[in-house]
Amino acid sequence: MAASIRDVLPAAAALLGVSGAVDKLGIADRACRVDRVLVILVDGLGWHLLPELACDAPLLAAVLNGSAGRLSQLGCAFPSTTPTNLVSLTTGAEPGEHGILGFTLNIPGTDKVLNHIRWRDDPPHTRWQPLPTWFERLTRAGVEVRAVLPEWFLGSGLTAAAYRGAQLRPTRHGQDYAGQIAVELAAAPGLVYGYTAELDTAAHLFGIGSEQWHAAASNVDNLLTRLVEALPTNAALLVTADHGGLNVPAGARIDLDADPRLTAGVRVVAGEPRVRYLHTQLGAAADVLATWRERLTCRADVHSRQEAVATGLFGAVNPRHLPRIGDVVVICRGDTAVLATGHEPPEAARLIGFHGAATAAEMAIPLIVFAG
């Protein structure tokens, strides 16, 4: 099985001597005899974006030419979206097991759509995401875990589902984030986790390759450079990502709400523009499947729920989580995106950069290991 985002925290735990933790990534070959590990997730730092990023990122350029750190390729979880991959990172589990199967999901038995970024306490996080996290496992093993996160993350359902077991250290906008992380790492042995969304935000709003995206790349590189410089000799830094991405031009966008043939028989629309979950009206699933296959020929893989699960993209799916997957699953090919202007906030249609589907540009992510 290919190396995955799911292997990162078990490898970190193995470095810290946790019984039963397995280092499938060979991190100990680069960083041994450490008593603290720093894990940084750079949202949107796709493998295929590294060469373009490097022109504004001296540290990443050095990583690419082999003069700094150790670079290897991982795969993220499907869908290649942030909520799914945050939870796959922290639980070490496939989406079919932990249940966070997309950016938005229909709550079974209702017509409600749960946006995981806006999720608070309904449904309860322990019911919606029932698996233990590696943060909990580390804590039970006597390893101190601290997560330095933006203060607005605290109190959210996604934070509780993904980061439970960690001591949360809030950071405010404008604070010295690198400095805060360095203080936490120096304070005590254990695992420290950090996250930055700046690169992904710029890709969504302005596009990959835009001036703003390159500026964000420079800022991320400065953050990582400072963390490498502050790394104690008894520490390791693991840098990874949750997904890559691509730009979707105007001509590649399909608005399902502008085509009555695509809305016929559809009860609830969930997922996101690169992966759509269509929950159908009673008895309409076959007709919806046929219509979407006809309308999106060569632009998307359109599956029934059973066919989508059989692809193995979600891993083994817990039967309790099956209803969260649409009766019809639409996985975009190329640079296609399926908008839902009648179901989602208008800003979603104004985005330029997207991710979520199963292309290499979206699924391949880096792992960079620095030893103190």
Automatic annotation (TrEMBL):
Q: Which InterPro entries match?
A: Alkaline_phosphatase_core_sf, Phosphodiest/P_Trfase
What are the protein's GO molecular function terms? Answer: hydrolase activity
The molecule here is called Nucleotide pyrophosphatase
Its source organism is Mycobacterium attenuatum
